[in-house]
Amino acid sequence: MTFNFKKWIGPSLIHIFFWAFTIASLIPFILVFMVSISSEDSILQNGYSLFPSHISFAAYQFLFNDFSEIAKAYGVTILTTLVGTVISLLITALFAYPLSRPDLPFRRTISFYIFFTMLFGGGMVPWYITYVNMFDLKNTILAMIIPNLLLSAFNVLLMRSFFASSIPESVVESATIDGASELKIFFSIVVPLSLPIMATIGLFNTLSYWNDWYNCMLFIDKPELYNIQYLMTKTLTNIQYLLMKSNSSAQVGDLLAKMPRETVRMALAIVGIAPLLFAYPFFQKYYISGITSGAVKG
Amino acid sequence: MKEKSQLWKSMKKYRWLLLMTLPGIVYLFINNYIPMYGVILAFKNYNYVDGIWGSAWAGLDNFKFLFNSQDAFIITRNTFLYNFVFIVLNLVLSVFVALLINEIKDKVISRFYQSTFLLPHIISMVVVAYLVYSFLNVDSGLVNRLLIKWFGSEAISWYSDPKYWPYILVIVNAWKNVGYLSIIYFASIIGIDKEYYEAATIDGASKWKQMTRITIPLILPIITTMTLLAVSGILRSDFGLFYQVPMNTGALIPTTNTIDTFVYRAMVQSGDIGMSTAAGFYQSVVCFVLILVANAAVRRINKRDALF
């Protein structure tokens, strides 16, 4: 009996536990999706349900009818994510590589300069005032690219340890003897040898730009510059927000009467997360190996 | 003189490498070092017209105002208690999950579980707020509907009663982070030399013994480092969790206000620059002291586990 228990019951208990965990991870997404395709009547009767009694795509029809708001917000998100990720990756790599060279003058000073920012900060208010008053970033696209997101000290240190352990010194030395400049060595030898870490850090950057609403909330007042995350924030607390800008007040009243209110909100949530969810199966491998390499190298 | 010229020579030799670090150095100067200097605002009566330099000094008035109000105590208590529960609960759950993942021999299934558990970690807090809302909406939310249907109880207005939120936020935080943390711990478990287990099996050690005598002691360094980092940030809170998930509802402020949401509201809603800077400065200083103390403590126990 005990032998059987160890052999069969133990492993199946583990699988039952993991199935429960898997369901707990996924069910909120499924619920939001199911609500978004429920009919209004079904919601009035049964509330938000995993098994709606009537399926309806009215909420999506409503959203796609006037898609300009969402399209604009997506445009902002895509633009800031692309530009931000590329610049961020470049600055991070340029910063990390010299620090991985043991012979660099001021190496310890520069490392401490980076590390100290992880230990102490001036807080959100002086940071905000720096960008608004000194650099006049309020209501500009740059406000969603530069503050905080452009460079992470942690990523610099992560990349530095990758360079230090994976770029053989002899390769750099022989290239120097052949007369290659440091910049040439960096772009034609170091970068091609470091594609795994570039992919990882690039992925981290992409996610933090894509998911950002904080900078948008702080620095942007103009609705035409809202990104998709902040548009979602606004709509969560006030569903009428979607209607307010593009229409006159008479039209708003009319639209509001016709709007499938309960489901539109959730349809917007699905439209907002769909790209990430579709891309996830393709990048999860790199993401997992990214966080685990960070953990192992510390 | 000789030293100076040598330094000059090596700077000339390494000028390109040094130049490469320049964008990063300038960026950190703007994003991190100027705001550090900006904490002088905590000692000023800031107004927009006179700016940072021109505004009149206020001495310690901002701090007096902050600590004489009830808020300072409440936000410190909330931030501390939430983080304390998060640290303990997340550590226990994620090490437990990591140990179980390690028991799964099928690589494909193990991968599948890992990537599903990680999904909550990659979405933004805005999306989390939507997910939570779909459960807790008063009229149609899943939880209230099930309460009515299964237990015949009344609908609970989750978004107007602060007493439920400590539990809700603890659950949401665990849901979002346990998968991520367990993958980190799992990665360090894989790194353990298989020979230990082979030897233990030959000696007749049970699975439980192997976990408690081999696995846990060997991943203790990474547990220490992660916990050390978390403890040193015990007065920092995840702004999104405490702002987005309760949907910035006024009625929930007593149990959802932390130092970070307080600073934000004091700056944006009341426009009190001096006092909100003071609150942020208080947070930074406490965190800085805590990380030095925690690191020194770990150094005493085992030098290799310390952060610096």
Assembly type of the shown chains? heterodimer
CATH topology of the largest domain in chain A: MetI-like fold
User: What is the mean predicted local confidence, pLDDT of chain B?
Assistant: 90
Mean pLDDT of chain A comes to 88
| Second CATH tier, the architecture of chain B | Orthogonal Bundle
Largest interface: chains, residues each: A-B, 96 and 93 residues
Portion in strands of chain B: under 5%
CATH class of the largest domain in chain A: Mainly Alpha
The geometry of chain B reads as: flat
Q: Strand fraction band of chain A?
A: under 5%
Instruction: Work out the radius of gyration of chain A.
Output: 25 Å
Based on CA inertia axes, which overall geometry of chain A fits? globular
InterPro entries (chain A): MetI-like, MetI-like_sf
Protein name (chain A): ABC transporter permease subunit
Membrane topology (chain A): Multi-pass membrane protein
GO biological process, one term (chain A): transmembrane transport
Written description of the protein model:
- The complex is a heterodimer of chains A (298) and B (308).
- The two termini of chain A are 45 Å apart.
- Chain A is mainly alpha-helical and 298 residues long.
- The radius of gyration of chain A is 25 Å and the shape is globular.
- The mean pLDDT of chain A is 88.
- In chain A, helix 1 (2-36) packs across helix 15, helix 8 (169-177) packs antiparallel against helix 9 (182-193) and helix 10 (195-210) packs antiparallel against helix 15 (261-297).
- Chain A contains 15 helices and no strands.
- By secondary structure, chain B is mainly α.
- Chain B has 15 helices and 2 strands.
- Chain B has a two-stranded antiparallel sheet.
- The longest helix of chain B is centred in the first third of the chain and has 34 residues, at 70-103.
- Chain B is flat, with a radius of gyration of 25 Å.
- At the A-B interface, helix 1, helix 4, helix 5, helix 6 and helix 9 of A face helix 1, helix 2, helix 5, helix 6 and helix 7 of B.
